[in-house]
Design a protein that fits this description.
Elements: E1 5-8, E2 11-12, E3 15-16, H1 20-23, E4 29-33, H2 41-53, E5 57-61
Parallel strand pairs: 1-4, 4-5
Antiparallel strand pairs: 2-3
């Protein structure tokens, strides 16, 4: 069996990155942005709800509010 994992829920307010709904039919696992990792509460709830309805297993991309965090690029 092949699994396909996708980072999802990376949006904040009016800023959207990617089309999560269009990807969901093709993935088996989703890492959903949480906390201060490029997401907001409305986006997190919607992404989790949509992933559960699609039967996708979900995990979290956690984020911490700190001046040293530079996103997926790592620490500076």
């Amino acid at each position: 069996m092949v699994t396909i994992n996708c980072d999802m829920g990376e949006a904040f307010g009016i800023y959207r990155l990617g089309d999560d709904a269009a990807c969901m039919p093709f993935v088996t696992h989703a890492n959903i942005a949480c906390g201060f990792h490029a997401s907001d509460p409305v986006t997190m709830r919607r992404t989790v709800k949509d992933a559960r309805q699609a039967g996708i297993k979900i995990g979290a991309i956690r984020g911490y509010l700190t001046a040293r965090v530079s996103g997926a690029g790592g620490w500076r």
